[in-house]
Design a protein that fits this description.
162 residues; alpha/beta; Rossmann fold; 5-stranded parallel β-sheet; 6 helices; 49% helix; 17% strand; globular; nucleotide-binding; ATP-binding protein; ATP binding
Length: 162
Protein backbone atom coordinates (compact mmCIF):
# COMPACT_ATOMS: atom_id res chain seq x y z
CA UNK A 1 0.00 0.00 0.00
CA UNK A 2 1.29 3.44 -0.92
CA UNK A 3 2.25 5.76 1.91
CA UNK A 4 -0.10 8.71 2.41
CA UNK A 5 1.25 12.21 2.01
CA UNK A 6 1.87 14.59 4.90
CA UNK A 7 -0.43 17.52 5.66
CA UNK A 8 1.53 20.63 6.61
CA UNK A 9 -0.27 23.58 8.16
CA UNK A 10 0.61 26.74 10.03
CA UNK A 11 -0.17 28.60 13.21
CA UNK A 12 0.94 32.17 13.78
CA UNK A 13 -0.50 35.59 14.34
CA UNK A 14 -1.42 37.81 11.42
CA UNK A 15 1.85 38.94 9.84
CA UNK A 16 3.94 36.07 11.26
CA UNK A 17 4.90 34.90 7.77
CA UNK A 18 2.57 31.94 7.24
CA UNK A 19 2.05 32.58 3.51
CA UNK A 20 5.74 33.17 2.83
CA UNK A 21 6.76 30.04 4.73
CA UNK A 22 4.04 27.92 3.13
CA UNK A 23 5.30 28.80 -0.36
CA UNK A 24 8.87 27.96 0.65
CA UNK A 25 7.86 24.66 2.23
CA UNK A 26 5.74 23.61 -0.76
CA UNK A 27 8.74 24.16 -3.04
CA UNK A 28 11.11 22.27 -0.70
CA UNK A 29 8.75 19.30 -0.32
CA UNK A 30 7.50 19.30 -3.94
CA UNK A 31 4.05 19.50 -2.36
CA UNK A 32 0.68 20.82 -3.47
CA UNK A 33 0.13 24.30 -2.03
CA UNK A 34 -3.42 25.37 -1.24
CA UNK A 35 -3.92 29.03 -0.31
CA UNK A 36 -7.10 30.10 1.43
CA UNK A 37 -6.68 33.68 0.21
CA UNK A 38 -6.45 32.50 -3.41
CA UNK A 39 -9.50 30.24 -3.13
CA UNK A 40 -11.60 32.91 -1.40
CA UNK A 41 -10.61 35.66 -3.84
CA UNK A 42 -11.40 33.37 -6.79
CA UNK A 43 -14.71 32.04 -5.51
CA UNK A 44 -15.93 35.21 -3.78
CA UNK A 45 -14.29 38.09 -5.68
CA UNK A 46 -14.52 41.50 -4.00
CA UNK A 47 -16.85 40.20 -1.28
CA UNK A 48 -14.48 40.19 1.70
CA UNK A 49 -14.76 43.61 3.26
CA UNK A 50 -14.50 42.67 6.94
CA UNK A 51 -13.15 39.98 9.23
CA UNK A 52 -16.70 38.67 9.59
CA UNK A 53 -16.95 38.31 5.78
CA UNK A 54 -13.70 36.36 5.80
CA UNK A 55 -15.00 34.02 8.51
CA UNK A 56 -18.22 33.40 6.57
CA UNK A 57 -16.47 32.58 3.28
CA UNK A 58 -13.78 30.52 5.00
CA UNK A 59 -16.49 28.39 6.61
CA UNK A 60 -18.15 27.87 3.20
CA UNK A 61 -14.86 26.91 1.56
CA UNK A 62 -13.65 24.27 4.02
CA UNK A 63 -16.23 21.55 3.31
CA UNK A 64 -15.53 21.91 -0.42
CA UNK A 65 -11.81 21.36 0.06
CA UNK A 66 -11.73 18.63 2.69
CA UNK A 67 -12.30 15.64 0.36
CA UNK A 68 -10.03 17.20 -2.28
CA UNK A 69 -7.17 17.47 0.24
CA UNK A 70 -7.78 13.93 1.45
CA UNK A 71 -7.68 12.60 -2.11
CA UNK A 72 -4.32 14.30 -2.70
CA UNK A 73 -2.91 12.91 0.57
CA UNK A 74 -4.26 9.42 -0.21
CA UNK A 75 -2.16 9.12 -3.38
CA UNK A 76 1.01 9.91 -1.42
CA UNK A 77 1.38 13.60 -2.24
CA UNK A 78 2.20 16.11 0.48
CA UNK A 79 -0.12 19.09 0.92
CA UNK A 80 0.90 22.47 2.35
CA UNK A 81 -2.03 24.51 3.59
CA UNK A 82 -1.73 28.28 3.58
CA UNK A 83 -4.78 28.44 5.82
CA UNK A 84 -4.57 29.66 9.41
CA UNK A 85 -4.48 27.11 12.19
CA UNK A 86 -4.77 29.82 14.83
CA UNK A 87 -7.58 28.38 16.95
CA UNK A 88 -8.18 24.92 18.40
CA UNK A 89 -11.20 24.55 16.11
CA UNK A 90 -9.14 25.37 13.00
CA UNK A 91 -6.38 22.97 14.03
CA UNK A 92 -8.90 20.18 14.73
CA UNK A 93 -10.17 20.57 11.13
CA UNK A 94 -6.64 19.95 9.81
CA UNK A 95 -6.04 17.07 12.21
CA UNK A 96 -9.33 15.39 11.21
CA UNK A 97 -8.44 15.69 7.52
CA UNK A 98 -5.15 13.88 8.11
CA UNK A 99 -6.44 11.27 10.57
CA UNK A 100 -9.40 10.22 8.42
CA UNK A 101 -7.05 9.12 5.62
CA UNK A 102 -4.25 7.91 7.92
CA UNK A 103 -1.91 10.68 6.77
CA UNK A 104 0.76 12.24 8.91
CA UNK A 105 0.70 15.94 9.73
CA UNK A 106 3.01 18.75 10.84
CA UNK A 107 1.90 21.99 12.46
CA UNK A 108 4.46 24.73 11.94
CA UNK A 109 4.06 27.31 14.70
CA UNK A 110 5.55 30.69 13.80
CA UNK A 111 5.75 32.04 17.34
CA UNK A 112 6.47 35.74 16.73
CA UNK A 113 5.53 38.51 19.13
CA UNK A 114 3.13 41.34 18.29
CA UNK A 115 5.89 43.81 17.48
CA UNK A 116 7.54 41.44 14.99
CA UNK A 117 4.18 40.76 13.30
CA UNK A 118 3.25 44.44 13.09
CA UNK A 119 6.64 45.23 11.49
CA UNK A 120 6.05 42.55 8.86
CA UNK A 121 2.48 43.78 8.26
CA UNK A 122 3.81 47.33 7.70
CA UNK A 123 6.29 45.93 5.16
CA UNK A 124 3.52 43.94 3.46
CA UNK A 125 1.42 47.13 3.08
CA UNK A 126 4.32 48.62 1.10
CA UNK A 127 4.89 45.50 -1.03
CA UNK A 128 1.19 44.72 -1.57
CA UNK A 129 -0.72 48.03 -1.49
CA UNK A 130 -3.95 46.26 -2.45
CA UNK A 131 -3.94 44.73 1.06
CA UNK A 132 -3.42 48.03 2.88
CA UNK A 133 -7.05 48.44 3.90
CA UNK A 134 -7.05 45.05 5.66
CA UNK A 135 -3.43 45.02 6.88
CA UNK A 136 -3.84 47.54 9.69
CA UNK A 137 -2.90 47.56 13.34
CA UNK A 138 -6.62 47.67 14.26
CA UNK A 139 -7.35 44.52 12.25
CA UNK A 140 -4.25 42.86 13.72
CA UNK A 141 -5.43 43.60 17.27
CA UNK A 142 -8.96 42.37 16.49
CA UNK A 143 -7.76 39.13 14.87
CA UNK A 144 -5.15 38.49 17.58
CA UNK A 145 -7.94 38.39 20.17
CA UNK A 146 -8.99 35.05 18.64
CA UNK A 147 -5.47 33.57 18.56
CA UNK A 148 -4.92 30.41 20.62
CA UNK A 149 -1.34 29.07 20.79
CA UNK A 150 -1.16 25.33 20.07
CA UNK A 151 -0.93 22.94 23.01
CA UNK A 152 0.47 19.42 23.24
CA UNK A 153 -2.94 18.22 24.49
CA UNK A 154 -4.36 18.79 20.98
CA UNK A 155 -2.47 15.74 19.70
CA UNK A 156 -0.46 17.72 17.16
CA UNK A 157 3.07 17.25 15.84
CA UNK A 158 4.31 20.81 16.43
CA UNK A 159 7.45 22.37 14.99
CA UNK A 160 7.99 25.80 16.54
CA UNK A 161 9.97 28.72 15.13
CA UNK A 162 10.65 31.98 16.98
Amino acid sequence: MKQSGTLYFFCGKMGAGKSTKSKQLAMEKHAVLLSEDEWISSLYPNLVESFEDYLKFSAQLKPLLKKHIQNILSVGTDVVMDFPGNTKKQRKWFLDIAKEVHASHQLIFLNLNNEQCLRQIAQRRIEQPERASFDTEAVFIHVTNFFEPPEASEGLHILEFR
